[in-house]
Every structure is written in structure tokens, then in C-alpha cells.
Amino acid sequence: MTDTATITHDEQLLIGGAWREAASGRRFDVTDPATGEVVGSVADADRDDVSAAIDAASAAFPAWAATPARERGRLLRRAADLMRERSAAIAAVMTAEQGMPLAEAAGEVEYAAGFLEWFGGEAERIYGQVVPPSNADKRVLVLRQPVGVTAAITPWNFPAAMLTRKLGPALAAGCTSVVKPAEATPLTAVEVCRALIDAGAPAGVVNLVTSSRPAEVGDVLMSDARVRKLSFTGSTEVGKELIRKSADQVMRLSLELGGHAPAIVFDDADLDDAVTQVMASKFRNAGQTCVCANRIYVQRGIHDAFRAAMAERVAALRVGAGTEPGVQIGPLIDDAAVTKVRRHVEDAIERGAELVVGGEPANGDRPSGGHFVTPTLLDGVTADMLLSHEETFGPVAGLTVFDTEDEAIAMANDTPFGLAAYLLTRDYARMLRVAERLEFGIVGANDGAPSVPSAPFGGVKQSGFGREGGDFGIDEYLSVKYVSIGGVAS
Ligand code: ADP
């Protein structure tokens, strides 16, 4: 067992290829959510540092855009290899600041490296077009070119992958980037940037501004005409604010905002597999993912068996510090997260839900500074409960019974969010029919973990727009230009 309190990491900003302190000299601490103890500190950027980072990204852009795609791709694949070689060390940093179990953190490193690798390949496939002429005298060439300097603002729940799925396509496309990670998880972001630098990223191609002042950093990024695109993953509230601010520079955006995923379990589902997939979706990262099943609709015929099997699996989940062997549910990120989850559980019980497993306060004999929540299963969840319309972001599963396919689809779609949805069935016609009718960007059909670098992750409705991953992912970082050539026939 590693004692995370003994690990300390003191890191700096990365601007123009140099690691350096903030101009103000300020720093801020990073704490372990399992203990509340300080595990490191980082430089605290303010507007001057962000402007310097944009200067560096802007200066680096022409040469990087002109670097052959094959070379850009190789660099990304080298960085992916370095992340894999350093997996144990990066996972330890991630667990120390984010709380997820070490094994899950190692999985996250692999997932994150996968985006660099995937987009490393895509760099060489940024094809244009030659359009058949509508006039014998003309030819039209369509070019796809890097948009320019890009910015990335990322959350704390997947501190490596949320960064690489922005940096991978940006760098593959020939863009340079200024990255601002979440305040809670800046150390993992340092590790990702270090892998890129060690893989040979030229000065200024990637710049990292850790900061405890997100709104100030955001304002500088959004008001600088040199920044041509922002990719943001985070809350719907901040996303809407960034949409408003993007108007000033008419900045391109991709936004991955909140989710409120339904999982629909049909009578004909394979019971064991359905439970496994719903558990995977619901309890991954202690329920702190935007694709976590937040509403579980169970058809009447399978309800009792499904509930019994879920109860057994939820009760068996091991809660603890992510550094303890065998732990499946780490701490939540902070106190506010614990309060929100407890409010959801209390509200559901007050409104008539049945507490099947868990529910009690969770610290037990764990460190008093830790943000732990007991995995909880509720039944009889109804549409009026907070659980049914707010993202819980914690290890709480709520079941709702339904009778018909139409009823389940109507309930599933009855949300302003549209990121991920799940359905569990062995009937392939139903699978297709329901998948087509679900108003979400991602559908996991008998699949509780649908995210992979090669697929276009993203949402509809208030879950945002733009796609990350797959060949769609690189389009976000490219501008289309056509060149019309006249006088060809003469
Ligand atoms: P979460 O609920 O996941 O913490 P946030 O939207 O608050 O979601 O945070 C996601 C990212 O957005 C973090 O990097 C955070 O620092 C950043 N952020 C928060 N507020 C702002 C803002 N006003 N402008 C720009 N970025 C912000």
C-alpha cells in the first residue's frame, strides 16, 4: 500500500517549452480526496501567464502547421508510448489527486494514451478533395487546414483522457494549444504535457496554465483574437457561459457538458450481463462520469431478479482509498460532491423511494478528511425526485419499473440532456429500433462502457456539441478552404 500523503509534487506552468513559475509567484495546493491532505502544489497562473501562453502557442503555430503530418503523428504515438511506460507513476499521481482506485487510474492512462495514438494515425489521413468541375475552364480544390491556436479547458473526473482527446486531434491537425486543467487535478495534466515534451513537442506547441482562477483564465482565452477554437468539458452552466463569451471573437467551440444517462433493462435481457453492464456504467469512477447511468428503467418482468442481483453487487462494492488493494469505489472529489449525493438520496427517500442498499453516512473508520459515500441502491424512483433530473455524480443507483417499450423511451428522452443512454436486450430488432429513437449522442447497447478513442464521443441537446474521438474528432480542429482555379482549359 502506498501512503499518498508521503508523495508530494511541486509543478510549474509550461509556456513556450519552459517550465516556469507564475509571473505573480503564486501557487496553490492539491489535496488527496481520500484524506484531505496536501499532496502537491502547482503554479497559479493569472491573466499575464495566459497571455504569455497564447503568445507562445501563436509563435509556434506556423512551423507546427507546416510540419509533415507523418512527423506530427509519430510524435503523438511516441507520447502515447511514454504515457504507457510511465503508467504506474502517472496512475499514482492521479489517484493521489483525484481519488480513483489505482487499477482504474492505470486504465485511464491507457485510455488517455489511446487518444494520442489514434489521432497520431489520423494526422496522415487529413484528406482534402478535388471537386469535379462544373465549368470546363475551372478546377476546385478543397483543403482542410488547422484552425490555429486552440484552447482546452478540462474537468477533474478523467484528468488525463479529457486532455488527450483534445490535445491529440489538435496537435495531429497542426494546431497549437493552451490547456487549462481543473483546479483539483492539475498534476496529472503536468504528466500528460511532460510526455508530449519528452516525445519531442517543439516549444509552444503545447502550453499548460494551471490556475485557481478559472473564470479569469477563461476570459483571457475567450477574448484573444488569436485563439480560434475552444474545446471544453465540464458543467452545462459554465458551458453556456462560454457559448456567450465565444460570441465576441466568433470562436469555434466544442462542448461536452452534463449528462443524465438512462439505462433501459428489457425483460429479455441477459440478467447477469445486464447487471454487469449497468454496474460498469453506474459505478465507474465512483459514479463521477458524465456517461454514468443516472436513471435505470427496468421492465416489470425482470424487475425483481434484476433488483436482487444489483443489491448483491452494490452491497459487495469495496469502498476506500484508491491506494488500497481491491478497492472499487474511491472517495468523491470534494465535500460539495458528498453533500449533493446525500441530498439526492434523502430527497428520494422523502418522496417515497425504497432504500435497498447503503444510504448511511460513509466515512466509517476511514480518515475524517476523506469524501466517501456508501454505494447505494434505491427502488421505486419517480420522475419528481432529484435523482431523476439532476446529474448525481456519485455511487447511487435508482430503479424505476416500466411496462412498455414506448413508455421506457418516453421516460428516457424526457430530459434536457442527451449524452449517453444504455439499453439491455437480446432482441436485435428491438435494439436497433430503440437505439434509433433514443435522443442521445452515444448509445451503449448491451455495453456499459462504450467510450473508445476510435468512436465519436459527444452529445445532443444541452449535453453540448462537437465530437471527440474517431475521424469526426479531428474535424473540430480543421477549417475547410476551397481554391477555385480558373483558366485551366485555355
Ligand atoms: P465541474 O462541475 O466538473 O467541476 P466545471 O464546469 O465547474 O465543472 O469545471 C470544468 C472546468 O471548467 C474546470 O477546468 C474549471 O476550472 C473550468 N471553469 C470553471 N468555471 C469557469 C469559467 N467561468 N470560465 C472558464 N472555465 C471555467
How would you describe the overall organization of this protein?
With 490 residues, the chain is of the alpha/beta class. It has two domains: 4-257 and 464-481, Aldehyde Dehydrogenase, Chain A, domain 1, CATH 3.40.605; 261-452, Aldehyde Dehydrogenase, Chain A, domain 2 (3-Layer(aba) Sandwich). It contains 15 helices and 23 strands. It has helices at residues 47-66, 69-85, 87-98, 102-122, 161-173, 186-198, 214-223, 236-246, 271-283, 300-315, 335-350, 386-389, 405-413, 428-437, 472-475, and strands at residues 9-11, 13-15, 18-20, 27-31, 38-43, 129-131, 139-146, 149-153, 176-180, 206-208, 227-233, 252-256, 261-265, 293-299, 354-357, 376-379, 396-402, 417-418, 420-424, 442-445, 460-461, 464-465, 478-485. α1 (47-66) packs across α7 and α9 packs across α10 (300-315). It is globular, with a radius of gyration of 23 Å. Bound molecules: adenosine-5'-diphosphate (ADP). Adenosine-5'-diphosphate (ADP) binds at residues 153-155, 180, 182-183, 214-215, 218, 234-235, 238, 241. Adenosine-5'-diphosphate binds next to α7 and α8.
